[in-house]
């Protein structure tokens, strides 16, 4: 299964050349570290999906001695693996360009990435090839655009929730959010596996 | 004689098309040619054998194992070649090998490079620059480099020029010298099969019409030619399908002895080619 994760690097070696300048642009433009971590994490796993939405790729992978459970597991584990890798590279880039960032930035960036992955990975199996990348890109732009107003709306109008959150200690808050994100990621993993097992190529 | 692939009462239904109650055995150590018109259900059957499609009902066993428990062990022993390139087209053979090789326990780099050399394939050019014949050779090189016992090919000769087709058939023949190998391949170019197939499985409209040794096919089926006056409701029963022309009739029979008994010397009996058989079965179904 490790081979399936390693496959992404072989497939994307040319795209990876763009990876570093791509991140540097964000870093130099002074984007918020959270956004840089998020975008960097998305790069490799979602590029893989651009390949894997093709029917031929699925015929190939399923004709090789892999089970469908392993193929999906490699996507979910691979996403985490490449996220960690991207965080390393991004941190280095931020450090070199003397842009300050905190562990909280990394935590929020990777948390957002995992949530985004958890919501979109099952969609890749549902939508027809060719449309999905567009759907995901648009939803990503809409989400990042809408996130600010939504957060504002919640702070202004749903004070019960914000009060509750504010009343929690920092540790409890972080643990809680981490657990919720992990649970969502796992549920998404299970859903995607069950969809993929029923697929026809 | 052991069956390396076994389909028992396999049914798969699609909208407007289905494979019905299929029973198919592929014998170990032989070449089985899988024939049928376009849309007869050959690719569906091959996809079910590869576990890309699951049957609605029935059982599929390979090497005596089923996919539910032994998916990896089964695929480890299969080499596959599909009609059309399934490998990442942007990659060169070296990178494709890097992705495919670690999937197999018995991958043999030396064998792979021997085939690359033999097929004169460029290892550093991307797959999309390959001609159809080169893509086929590349698929074949990959399929043959992990000591597969069963080679499954879906229309390997489609779209290839006659020279390369013949080279491919010679190569397959060479492979069979090692008696452990089994080849199962679909084609609608039936002349390919006269050269190398030991068994012929013939599919028509989602059903397996027969699966016989090529010798039995030649012995059982024949073309019969004679005058129209010989035909009536009873004598026609001896035929799969009758083609009438003003000059006389031409028909396919699957019981030569019965034809001899009925018509004696009044008709001419000729050997039926696989193409004749496919043609008459197609006609037969349309008229019934």
Textual characterization of the structure:
The complex is a heterodimer of chains A (about 200) and B (about 290). Chain A has about 200 residues and is mostly helical. Chain A has one domain (about 1-200). Chain A is built from nine helices and no strands. The radius of gyration of chain A is 18 Å and the shape is globular. Chain A starts with a helix and ends with a helix. The model of chain A has no long low-confidence stretch (mean pLDDT about 85). By secondary structure, chain B is an alpha/beta fold. Helices cover about 35% and strands about 30% of the residues of chain B. Chain B contains ten helices and 14 strands. In chain B, the strands form three sheets. Chain B has a six-stranded mixed β-sheet with strand order 6-7-8-3-9-10, sandwiched between helices. In chain B, α4 runs antiparallel to α5. Chain B is elongated. The interface of A and B includes residues 13, 62, 66 and 200 of A.
Helix-strand pattern of chain A, N to C?
HHHHHHHHH
Number of helices of chain A: 9
Find the count of extended strands of chain A (DSSP E, 2+ residues). Answer: 0
Low-confidence stretches of chain B: none
Unreliable stretches of chain A (pLDDT < 50, length at least 5) are none
Strand order of the largest sheet of chain B: 6-7-8-3-9-10
What is the count of β-strands of chain B? 14
Oligomerization: heterodimer
Radius of gyration of chain B: 21 Å
Structural class of chain B: alpha/beta
In DSSP terms (H or I, runs of 4 or more residues), the helix count of chain B works out at 10
> Which structural class matches the secondary elements of chain A?
mainly alpha
Report the biggest beta sheet of chain A as strand number plus sense, adding barrel if it closes: none
Strand content of chain A: under 5%
- Radius of gyration of chain A, CA atoms, in whole angstroms: 18 Å
* Greatest interface by residues involved: A-B, 19 and 28 residues
- N-to-C span of chain A: 21 Å
């Amino acid at each position: 299964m490790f081979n399936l994760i390693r496959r992404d690097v072989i497939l994307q070696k040319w795209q990876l050349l763009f990876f570093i300048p791509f991140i540097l642009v964000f870093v130099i433009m002074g984007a918020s570290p959270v956004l840089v971590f998020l975008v960097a994490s998305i790069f490799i796993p979602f590029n893989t999906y651009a390949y894997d939405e093709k029917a031929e790729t699925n015929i190939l992978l399923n004709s090789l001695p892999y089970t469908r459970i392993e193929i999906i597991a490699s996507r979910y584990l691979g996403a985490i693996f490449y996220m960690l890798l991207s965080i390393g590279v991004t941190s280095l880039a931020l450090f070199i360009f003397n842009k300050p960032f905190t562990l909280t930035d990394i935590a929020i960036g990777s948390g957002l990435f995992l949530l985004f992955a958890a919501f979109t990975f099952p969609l890749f199996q549902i939508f027809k090839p060719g449309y999905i990348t567009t759907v995901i890109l648009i939803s990503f732009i809409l989400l990042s655009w809408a996130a600010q107003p939504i957060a504002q709306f919640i702070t202004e109008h749903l004070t019960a929730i914000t009060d509750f959150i504010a009343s929690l200690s920092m540790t409890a808050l972080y643990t809680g959010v981490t657990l919720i994100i992990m649970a969502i990621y796992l549920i998404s993993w299970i859903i995607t596996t069950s969809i993929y097992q029923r697929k026809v190529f | 004689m052991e069956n390396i692939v076994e389909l028992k009462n396999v049914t798969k239904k699609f909208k407007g098309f289905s494979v019905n109650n299929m029973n198919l055995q592929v014998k170990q150590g032989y070449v089985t040619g899988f024939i049928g018109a376009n849309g007869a259900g050959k690719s569906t059957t091959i996809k079910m054998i590869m576990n890309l499609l699951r049957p609605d009902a029935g059982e599929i066993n390979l090497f005596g194992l089923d996919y539910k428990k032994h998916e990896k062990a089964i695929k480890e022993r299969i080499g596959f070649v599909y009609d059309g390139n399934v490998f990442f087209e942007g990659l060169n053979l070296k990178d494709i090998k890097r992705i495919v090789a670690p999937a197999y326990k018995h991958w043999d780099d030396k064998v792979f490079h021997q085939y690359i050399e033999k097929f004169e394939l460029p290892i550093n050019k991307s797959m999309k620059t390959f001609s159809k014949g080169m893509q086929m050779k590349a698929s074949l090189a990959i399929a043959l480099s992990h000591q597969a016992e069963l080679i499954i090919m879906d229309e390997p000769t489609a779209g290839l020029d006659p020279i390369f087709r013949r080279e491919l058939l010679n190569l397959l023949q060479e492979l069979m010298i090692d008696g452990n190998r089994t080849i199962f391949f679909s084609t609608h170019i039936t002349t390919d099969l006269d050269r190398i197939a030991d068994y012929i499985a013939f599919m028509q409209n989602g059903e397996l019409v027969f699966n016989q040794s090529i010798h039995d096919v030649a012995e059982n089926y024949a073309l019969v030619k004679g005058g129209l006056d010989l035909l009536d409701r009873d004598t026609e029963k001896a035929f799969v399908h009758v083609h009438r022309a003003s000059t006389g009739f031409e028909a396919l029979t699957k019981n030569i002895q019965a034809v001899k008994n009925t018509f004696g010397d009044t008709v001419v009996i000729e050997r039926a080619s696989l193409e004749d058989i496919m043609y008459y079965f197609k006609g037969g179904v349309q008229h019934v």
